[in-house]
Amino acid sequence: MEVIPVTADAEVFTCNAYLVLGDRTVLVDAGTMAGVETAVAEHTDDLDAVVLTHQHADHIGELDAVVERFEPDVYAFGDHPLRTHELEDGDEIVMGDETFEVIYTPGHADDHVSLVSGRSLFSGDVVVYNDNAFDDGSFGKTDLPGQSRERVISSLRTLRDRLPTTVETMYAGHGDVFKRGTGGDTIHDVIERALERAERREPKYPVT
Description:
Layout: E1 2-5, E2 18-21, E3 26-28, H1 36-41, E4 49-51, H2 57-60, H3 63-70, E5 73-76, E6 85-86, E7 92-95, E8 98-104, E9 113-116, E10 120-124, E11 127-128, E12 138-139, H4 149-162, E13 169-172, E14 178-179, H5 187-199
Parallel strand pairs: 3-4, 4-5, 5-6, 10-13
Antiparallel strand pairs: 1-2, 2-3, 7-8, 8-9, 9-10, 11-12, 13-14
């Protein structure tokens, strides 16, 4: 399975949108980079599906353009006018050459899901390897209306407990892709570190 971060050259704030190539070509999140559909088209003529980890603006800003270009199926937990398939916790979905389990991981967003196979994790924003708050295990923001630190903590515990020990790579919604062994860490180590930091219940970003 080949995974291409198609928003890597974005000059605007966006999530990481990942094109997953293989038996079933899938875009995980659409991002906000104008022309993302053209970036996808550089690698494939056909896009079978778009899977949304959640529907914050930085993850779905260019969804309309992608759907107009490729007419893919659209999978999402929460309702959306372009959704063709509703995701639920425990569902399975094929992306590339791997079968992923849908894990409901709310807190940063009410409709947030993570996608887990035996080798890969698409974590959206519930856990990232590095951002401008922490460098080796961080968690999604919880300071806006509708967000919940307690639910993020619960989601991190759920993800930790349901994540296979064989998972080698984490594709997060922001920051760098994490590969097992970086800094001597496993993905479980990264999640544990993010969880410990979230459990402090301190502001993620100091108030200035």
